[in-house]
């Protein structure tokens, strides 16, 4: 029950935030695009997090911190009660700052909900704190989870994002992902 209340709370906060602060943001191209990973093109990202940060599995205690991160990076509301039916076991990673326990990065891999026969794996909701650019949080999470999808032998590996997210698209390309429209 607590989870559903918190989801309602964060969904409402996100809605109000968009109405109050972003009603004039028509300059961004929010067109959804699909990005595909061919396992043969995957380039593992070998950076390590600084010692004051820890990459680990998501736990229910991280629910609040995860949604606070989503609000901070303006990614919207992630319906975890929906996604929990598709997230792969052990496939939800977070990066926390050790001394504060603050979630500063997160993403998960799942069976793509529109997939027939569970043949498509997807990387979802990758976010990292914009105040920590340069630490490699996003690429480290994306690399670990991309490898997980490859190791699970999905027939197709994909993710979705918006066209205006040029920085994250560039990061994915460095890992070997390609825009579906370019294939």
Strand content: 25-35%
Order of helices and strands: HEEHHEEEHEHE
Q: Which CATH top level class fits?
A: Alpha Beta
Query: Can you tell me the CATH topology?
Result: Aminopeptidase
Report the uncertain regions: none
Helix content: 25-40%
Secondary-structure class: alpha+beta
Total domain units: 1
The major pleated sheet works out as: 7 strands, mixed
CATH H-level homologous superfamily name: Gcn5-related N-acetyltransferase (GNAT)
Shape: globular
Provide the CATH architecture: 3-Layer(aba) Sandwich
Write the layout of secondary structure elements.
Blueprint: H1 2-21, E1 32-37, E2 53-57, H2 63-72, H3 80-83, E3 87-97, E4 102-111, E5 120-128, H4 137-151, E6 156-162, H5 166-174, E7 177-179
Helix pairs in contact: 1-2
Any overview of this molecule?
By secondary structure, this protein is an alpha+beta fold. It has one domain: Gcn5-related N-acetyltransferase (GNAT) (Aminopeptidase, 3-Layer(aba) Sandwich), CATH 3.40.630. It is built from five helices and seven strands. Strands 2-3-4-5-6-1-7 form a seven-stranded mixed sheet. Strand 3 and strand 4 form a beta hairpin. The longest helix is centred in the first third of the chain and has 20 residues. The radius of gyration is 16 Å and the shape is globular. It starts with a helix and ends with a strand. The mean pLDDT is about 90.
Short description:
The protein is an alpha+beta fold and 183 residues long. It is built from 5 helices and 7 strands. Helix 4 (137-151) links the parallel strand 5 (120-128) and strand 6.
């Amino acid at each position: 029950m607590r989870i559903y209340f918190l989801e309602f709370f964060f969904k409402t906060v996100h809605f109000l935030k968009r109405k109050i602060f972003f009603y004039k943001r028509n300059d961004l191209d929010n067109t959804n695009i699909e990005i595909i990973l061919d396992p043969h093109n995957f380039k593992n990202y070998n950076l390590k997090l600084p010692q004051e940060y820890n990459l680990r599995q998501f736990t229910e205690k991280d629910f609040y911190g995860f949604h606070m991160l989503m609000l901070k990076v303006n990614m919207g509301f992630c319906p975890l009660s929906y996604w929990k039916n598709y997230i792969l076991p052990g496939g939800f990673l977070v990066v926390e700052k050790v001394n504060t326990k603050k979630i500063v990065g997160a993403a998960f891999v799942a069976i793509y909900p529109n997939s027939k026969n569970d043949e498509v794996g997807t990387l979802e909701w990758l976010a990292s704190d914009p105040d920590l650019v340069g630490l490699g949080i996003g690429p480290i999470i994306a690399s670990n989870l991309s490898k997980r999808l490859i190791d699970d032998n999905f027939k197709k590996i994909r993710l979705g994002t918006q066209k205006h997210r040029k920085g994250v698209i560039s990061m994915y390309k460095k890992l070997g992902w390609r825009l579906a429209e370019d294939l």
